[in-house]
Amino acid sequence: MDAVLVIGRILFALIFVTSGIAHFAKLEAMTGYAQYKKLPAAKLGVLISGLFFLLGGIYIAAGFWVDLGALLLAITLILAAVIFHNFWKETDPTTKQNEMIAFNKDIALAGASLILFALIAWGTLTEFGPSIGNLAFFNF
């Protein structure tokens, strides 16, 4: 089971590590998009979000400070969803749908990050909440 958790952590973190790198590699383009979305101090916002994505992803993948990494990701994802994917302001149906998809993706990933944070910060899954059983097919 430990191997599955390590693989899961790495797969989950990969999108954030690559996104963090992209924030720095494509700084000017991402700053332009942030300015278009009227983010104050756009370049600083891109740098900070890139750093949070990169560190959060590395911490989770490496297995140290996983709770901090998950919290960094959750904060960044919630802010990105609200600031950049505010579908409720769009009038064009296609743009509105695309922004809603991006908003929902960010919120879902933030939720997964918060679950990971809670599991690490407060203990085991059984302490996390009620359970209806486990996924074991064979009990020996």
From TrEMBL:
Any one GO cellular component localisation term in the record: membrane
Topology of the protein relative to the lipid bilayer: Multi-pass membrane protein
Protein name: Oxidoreductase
Pfam families: DoxX
Keywords assigned by UniProt, alphabetized: Membrane, Transmembrane, Transmembrane helix
Cellular localization per UniProt: Membrane
TM regions (residue ranges): 6-24, 44-62, 68-87, 107-125
